[in-house]
Amino acid sequence: MDNFRTRYAGFILLLLPLACHARSPKIAPDLDGLDPHSIISVIVQFAAPPDSAQHGRIDQAGGVEQADLPLIRGEIVSIPASALSGLANDPNVVYVSPDRQVSATLDYANPTVGAGYALSYGWDGTGVGIAIIDSGILQENDLLSKNTNASNVSRIVYNQSFIPKVSSTSDQYGHGTHVAGIITGNGTASTGQTISRHFGAWPLMPISSTCVYWMRTAMGPTVM
Prior knowledge:
Distance between the termini: 79 Å
Number of strands: 9
Helix content: 10-25%
């Protein structure tokens, strides 16, 4: 019996270092292996909105609150990498992830609609018109014509409002303008040193804009 206890104790001692250095499930995997002396920017999500006591604990760990993220009950915090484990041990902390740099692309959208196939045959929208029935379209630079020397010729060739007693087709929600840009934005306002993609699948296509009323219901947006 004593021999069994000795072996069991030895087994526990072997596992103890692994347990002590195991990563908390509340810390994102890509925060592993950081220089413990480095200062990193992380997004901390809380079970309950952080109060002054919570902020005090973060401050004591060397953290500095950079921004509030109320929609996800979180904050952007600058903190030493060595303090992450202690931060994750806080029962009010749900998850800690890097404040990652993100960017928008059309890596999936254009292939989904077959834009590459069409463009490979020279079909760029020339001679084709589209009608967008949505919340209206704002005149953006991406929707101007590049087929003329003039700099202000719109490719929105027609617009109409179906809202009773409202004649304006100005986009008050942004959705119709967003859709128009995906379909036929020519990239005029989407180019620069740090931008590598244009957003329109068919950038020469003229547009017909119709405005409808979006009413939010318990089931989500409904077109009237």
